[in-house]
Amino acid sequence: MSVLLVCLNSCKFNYSFTGASISPKIKTISVQYFPNYAPLVNAQLSQIFTQALKDKFTSQTNLSFVDKNGDIQFEGQITDYSNQPTAIQGNQTAAQNRLTITIKVKYTNTQEDKLSFETSFTKYLDYPSTKSFPSVESDLVTQIVSQMVQDIFNKAVVNW
Q1: Contact 31, 49 (CB under 8 A)
Q2: Structure pTM?
Q3: What backbone phi and psi angles, to 5 degrees, belong to 144?
């Protein structure tokens, strides 16, 4: 039993039930506002995404938030928000439409630079063309942002 306690106390990373492995040296996180530079702009997307990223780390880690210069830092921008037909039927009408969101993320790990990254994350969802975009937009955005935030969380602290 004492061998197990020694091993647990000397581990390099703190593990959680979420799969996150964060160095004990990392105590703080900062998430900057993600401005929307997409050609088609959803006026609420920047706030929705930024808050969802903060909420993910609040609920899944014990890190403290700071306004800037956290031990780990997120910044970036929304680069694409598009709604396009995807499945064209024989009569040249769309059977499906697709909402696509791309967000460029810069993740800085000040304690272990090799874990830092800068990459774009893209997610999309299809919806039937029988539904109007305004009637499904909010739900689609919520689902896409949730999936995207999970991917960013995994890449940053689950090390997949």
Answers
A1: no
A2: 0.84
A3: -65, -45
Closest CA to 120 of 77, 158, 81: 77
Q: The tokens 């506002």 sit on which residue?
A: 33
Q: What is the CA radius of gyration of the chain?
A: 19
Do residues 49 and 58 make contact, with C-beta atoms less than 8 angstroms apart?
Answer: no
Q: How many domains does the chain have?
A: 1
In tens, the pLDDT along 103-119 reads 999 999 999 999 999 99
Distance CA 154, CA 136 (A): 27
Q: How far apart are the C-alpha atoms of 14 and 132, rounded to whole Å? A: 46
Tokens of 149: 């935030």
Strands 64-65 and 21-22: unpaired
Domain limits for position 109: 2-158
65 phi and psi angles, rounded to 5 deg? -85, 140
CATH of the domain at 112: 3.30.160.150
pLDDT in tens, 70-113: 999 999 999 999 999 886 766 666 689 999 999 999 999 999 99
